[in-house]
Amino acid sequence: MKHPSEAMLALEAGGDLGMFARWRVGRHLARCERCRLEADAFRSLREIAPELREIPEISWNRLASEMKANIRLGLEAGRCVRPGDETDLDPAPRFFGARALIAVASVFALMVTGLMLEHPAPNLAAARQEGVVVQRLAGGIQVRGGGQALRLLHGNARDVYFSVGAQGSLRARYVDPDTGYVTINNVYAE
Amino acid sequence: MCIRFAAIIVLATAGLPAQDAPLDTHSSIKINLAPDSPVTLLTANVGESRATARGAALVLDLHMGLVLRNSSPNRVRGVTLRVVAQEVALGGKASVAVPSLNVGPGEAFPVRIDVQLMRPTQTASGPLVQVDLDGVLFQDLSFYGPNRLNSRRSLTAWELEAQRDRQHFKNVLASTGADGLRREMLESLARQAERPRLDVRVARGGRSVSAAAVAPLERTAEFAFLKFPDAPVEPVEGWAQLTGNEARAPRIEVKNTSGKPVRYVELGWIVRDQKGQQFLAASLPASDPDLYLPPGKTGRVLQDTSLRFSHDGEPVAVQGMAGFVSQVEFADGKVWVPNRQNLQNAMLLKVLAPSAEEQRLSDLYRKKGLNALVEELKKF
Q: 3-class DSSP state for residue B64?
């Protein structure tokens, strides 16, 4: 039996697989306990470390335009260093050369991929169901909702006490290492 | 030719640093203190604030080092600053409080605020963050401020706990000397290190997706109560809905056993897991801002929230729950907190965090030693 890769299982755990891949991995997980446990482990990791979901994302549009610019730059640079080019003022024949065609095709493929990957597909139903959430993160506490978040950070303070208010508030209490005063950060969902 | 080539490279790479840019802190942060405020802003260092693009979102790091001066004739015991971010988190707000202060007239004290905002990249006009004074508590327990976040009650409760714990340590010093105080501090630090900690995620006005999927498994569980003889309010009965590691919609009936009307009640909520380990899960405040509980009458403390528990990365399936009255505010503004004898209960000793003052004093002992602690206790 061929097992899905770790990356596929991690994507499956986060609900980030495409329709066909999800079906294929789901079918495998139904039969393979080892992979199911691994996917569960990824899922629980996401639960306990919500900040992992907020690792810096890549701006695909920006990346695409930067790569496009770099390819253009490469073509320009190629023209600059090619011997005897100084006198050649007509770029038209080279623009339709094989390399330029490949470059343009690459840019197009990159843009399409970027568009597919970046398309913002927030799980609106889930967000609505979850409402406004207050939670603890590494180095801080936050209130988030509707794709926005407000965080109060306690940096590298040690012995931080967290306390939850069932009305939707979260408190982090610590002795500020710089000021020596007890500082109490609060975030409120109400 | 080479110059042209270099110019193209410089222009092409110019866009990259735009991902991370310093913020104009003067237009990004606004600090509001009323003209009649008893604390005034001495200095505000708002450097190192940055905006970073992360995909379609913008992360704004705002760091503020404020120095405030007590311009009143009274000693300041605590301050709460309200932090409001424009257009962020469905009206979510935050505050930074500094209790256990001992700042005399004309003296200055620092407050550090580190805020991070995450929001869509669209820009908004006006300051990103506003910092207002929500309240100042003085030595005589008088209060100044708009009190939008009920800072009066919180600061008063923290100050009463501070007075209680300072008195306790002074009594230990008087009765058992420096060695006794040292033992007491070491016991406190050991309790703090051993205290089991629970990760709790709170969702208001909704419930977790996983719980929604298994709603048929939900059960109603009843609270057991720990009663303090001198508490002005007594818990009568209470329930919450449990599903796996999630509890929601807690509701507790309480009775005012004092001779004075009560306007706020808060209970501590302890949960027990399958292994019998107990954790302080949350505080459960009365939801009704207009609560008025005359002597002898009963009322309800309830919240429409769901709490999901985990410990060391593992979900904590709740097997049992207990509650105790942790704070009461009377209609005249006076506040009740449990005394040290109440807190000597074996279960509470294990699960409760130290008060802010005990945390400060034990931190002082750990960093500067017994003599510094004794000197600090003498200041009050």
A: strand
Which residues pair with residue A145 across a beta bridge?
A148
E-strand stretches of B75-161:
76-85, 93-98, 108-120, 129-138, 143-144
pLDDT, residue B341, reads: 92
A134–B201 CB contact, under 8 Å:
yes
Gap from A1 CA to chain B (nearest CA, Å):
30
**pLDDT attached to residue A2:** 79
Find the angle CA(B301)-CA(B306)-CA(B309) to the nearest 5 degrees.
115
Judge whether B134 and B145 are in contact, CB under 8 Å.
Answer: yes
How many C-beta atoms lie closer than 10 Å to residue A63's C-beta? 16
Expressed in angstroms, the distance from the first to the final Cα of chain B is 77
Q: In the beta sheet, which residues pair with residue B284?
A: B267
The pTM for the full model equals: 0.73
Residue B19 CA, distance from chain mean position = 34
Beta carbons of B240 and B321 less than 8 angstroms apart: yes
Q: CA-to-CA distance for B268 and B285, rounded, in angstroms? A: 9
β-strand pairing of A148-153 with B199-204:
unpaired
**Measured between CA atoms, how close is B35 to chain A, in angstroms?**
25
3-state secondary structure of A21: helix
β-pair partners for B301:
B252
Determine which of A66, A75, A117, A181 to mutate to test the interface with B (most B C-beta atoms within 10 Å). A181
Highest mean pLDDT among A45-49, A81-85, B259-263: B259-263
Alpha-carbon gap, residue A84 to A82, rounded angstroms: 6
Pairwise CB contact (< 8 Å): B12 & A184? no
Contact status, residue B53 vs residue A59, Cβ threshold 8 Å:
yes
- Interval B366-375 mean pLDDT: 94
- The DSSP secondary-structure symbol of B89 reads G
CA distances from A99 to A57, A108, B224, B309 (A): 31, 14, 76, 58
Model confidence pLDDT, tens digit, residues B1-33: 455 544 444 444 444 444 567 777 667 788 999
> How do strand B246-256 and strand B233-243 relate by DSSP bridges?
antiparallel
Phi-psi map region of B17: left, alpha, beta (phi>0 left; psi -120 to 50 alpha): alpha
pLDDT at residue A56 is higher than 50: no
CA distance B180 to B73: 37
The per-residue pLDDT for range B187-236, each reduced to its tens digit, is 999 999 998 888 888 876 555 444 444 455 789 999 999 999 999 999 99
Distance CA B95, CA B93 (A): 7
pLDDT for A88: 43
Of A177-181, B60-64, B213-217, B244-248, the range with the lowest mean pLDDT is B213-217
CA separation for the pair A23, A29 (Å, rounded): 10
Give me the residues paired with residue B205 across strands. none
B5 contacts A181? CB cut-off 8 A: no
